[in-house]
Amino acid sequence: MTEPADDNARSAAFYGRRKGKKLRTAQADHLERDLPRLAVDLDTLPGRPLADLFPHPVRAVRLEIGFGGGEHLISEAQRHPDIGFIGAEAFINGIAKATAMVADLGLSNVRLHGDDVVPLLDRLPEGGLDQVDLLYPDPWPKRRHWKRRFVRADNIARIARILASGGRFRFATDIESYAAWTLRRLTADPRFEWTAARADDWRRPWEGWPGTRYEAKAKREGRLPGYYEFRRL
């Protein structure tokens, strides 16, 4: 089957709902009180060291695109207090949940972007990140919607620009066709190298992997996750 051509002129990455069920009172309060101090100010990003986003020194900065309920983002921030994390999520319920967790746990190494991630990617400094995670993105399984998949030429170029040499792009999915789609594009890109040396390298989750609610649902429904890592050359 012939795949639709990537649309490099696309200006936005987010498709779908921005809000689900009504926020709980505590979540709404956290959004109003805490999100302003946690939010990344895009206007101040160009020319600014990313480490300046955080009140304490960090040795590296990582980005998670579409963090969902925030399970992985928060777990990684707790495991690595010396690393700064930027979480991007356009779904307001996910932003509300992450904001509440960051505030309640007192995490100083997390910043949040509650909108389409493309404007953020375009303002991040070249080579400023040592890792980008894209975990269980919407696979848009219908062929007419493939153009909405996040892994495409324009966004691969964006990720390549912001990753430092030796940096990692990590991708997880339980949809075999999306895994194949991503592998075709990343292995054909001279800027990236797939790090897997054997099947277990992509069948087993990464060290410290906390799992996510979506992943648990996929396993219950008989879909096996894959964990793919690519090194920026």
Helix-strand layout with pairing:
Blueprint: H1 25-33, H2 35-38, E1 60-65, H3 71-79, E2 83-88, H4 92-105, E3 110-113, H5 118-123, E4 129-135, H6 153-162, E5 163-173, H7 176-187, E6 192-194, H8 200-203, H9 213-220, E7 226-232
Parallel strand pairs: 1-2, 1-4, 2-3, 4-5
Antiparallel strand pairs: 5-7, 6-7
- Spatial extent as radius of gyration: 17 Å
CATH architecture name: 3-Layer(aba) Sandwich
Tally of strands: 7
Mean pLDDT: 90
Specify the CATH class.
Answer: Alpha Beta
Largest sheet: 7 strands, mixed
Give the N-to-C terminal Cα separation. 31 Å
* Total count of helical runs of at least 4 residues: 9
Provide the number of structural domains.
Answer: 1
Low-confidence stretches: 7-12
Order of helices and strands: HHEHEHEHEHEHEHHE
Shape: globular
CATH topology: Rossmann fold
- The proportion of residues in beta strands is 15-25%
Q: Report helical residue fraction.
A: 25-40%
Write out the CATH superfamily name.
Vaccinia Virus protein VP39
Strands in their spatial order, largest beta sheet: 3-2-1-4-5-7-6
> Which structural class should the secondary elements be placed in?
alpha/beta
Keywords: Methyltransferase, S-adenosyl-L-methionine, Transferase, tRNA processing
EC number: 2.1.1.33
Function: Catalyzes the formation of N(7)-methylguanine at position 46 (m7G46) in tRNA.
Binding site for S-adenosyl-L-methionine: 64, 89, 116, 138
